[in-house]
């Protein structure tokens, strides 16, 4: 985990410095595009989360962008890979994200940054569906803010976004479909946000203990099954 979180206050500073460094390396005739996704998109576009420790992105730029990222990391004491494309190896990634991303800012007239918002950000987080990170609470937070702004996101909008990104709503994990349909049906977003956030924190603690006991046993493919098995065992023991 990064020692220094990314916030609304410092994130633009890092992006501005990155564009400046990229221009210094490549000159003014080689533009680049970066789509910020996940936690960075949440922090930029919404108010319910103040920070993120992940800076995932889709980067369309010359290979020297990596050098620019490292230079900015050195300048601000950020770890190597503080801005990374690891997300592109996950099931949430699809090249179609480019089409549905929205302009955020351009710095140094050379690097354009885009983000993902609304139902498309929800669709991506539903596809990830991690119950030990911020995926589910972020979904509720986004629904909550849109509801308060009298700009609600409907289940039909989410179905369409998922289909646009992943070809079919049925491609979502079953637990994600159940989760989103119940959330939108209940609409008790404020209460749900708190309870889901607590669940994620509890699950994270469970997994940290599991990893101590069984190093390297958990991975992205089996982590939900591990959580379910541990919870079931606890319930059986308590009964």
Characteristic terms for this protein:
single chain, 239 residues, alpha+beta, 2 domains, two-stranded antiparallel sheet, 10 helices, 56% helix, 10% strand, globular
Short structural description:
The protein has ten helices and six strands.
**Percent helix among the residues?**
55-70%
> Number of DSSP strands?
6
Give the oligomeric state of the chains in this entry, treating copies of one chain as homo and distinct chains as hetero: single chain
* Strand line-up of the largest beta sheet: 4-2-6-5
Domains, number:
2
Q: Total number of helical segments?
A: 10
Class from secondary-structure proportions: alpha+beta
Gross geometry? globular
Give the C-alpha Rg.
19 Å
Biggest β-sheet: count, sense, barrel? 4 strands, mixed
Strand content: 5-15%
Could you list the spans in which at least 5 consecutive residues all have pLDDT below 50? Answer: none
The run of helices and strands is EHEHEEHHEEHHHHHH
N-C termini distance: 36 Å
């Amino acid at each position: 985990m990064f020692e220094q979180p990314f916030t609304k206050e410092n994130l633009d500073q890092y992006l501005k410095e990155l564009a400046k460094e990229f221009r210094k390396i490549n000159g003014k005739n080689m533009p680049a595009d970066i789509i910020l996704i996940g936690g960075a998109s949440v922090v930029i576009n919404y108010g319910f989360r103040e920070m993120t420790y992940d800076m995932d992105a889709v980067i369309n730029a010359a290979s020297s962008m990596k050098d620019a990222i490292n230079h900015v990391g050195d300048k601000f004491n950020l770890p190597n890979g503080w801005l990374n494309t690891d997300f592109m190896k996950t099931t949430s990634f699809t090249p179609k994200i480019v089409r549905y991303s929205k302009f955020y800012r351009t710095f140094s007239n050379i690097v354009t940054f885009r983000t993902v918002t609304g139902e498309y950000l929800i669709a991506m987080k539903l596809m990830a569906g991690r119950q030990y990170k911020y995926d589910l609470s972020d979904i509720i937070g986004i629904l909550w803010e849109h509801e308060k702004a009298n700009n609600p996101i409907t289940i039909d909008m989410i179905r369409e976004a998922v289909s646009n990104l992943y070809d079919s709503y049925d491609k979502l994990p079953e637990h994600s479909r159940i989760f989103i349909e119940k959330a939108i049906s209940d609409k008790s977003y404020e209460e749900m946000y708190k309870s889901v956030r607590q669940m994620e924190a509890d699950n994270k603690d469970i997994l940290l203990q599991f990893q101590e006991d069984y190093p390297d046993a958990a991975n992205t493919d089996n982590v939900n099954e591990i959580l379910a098995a541990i919870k079931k065992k606890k319930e059986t023991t308590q009964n």
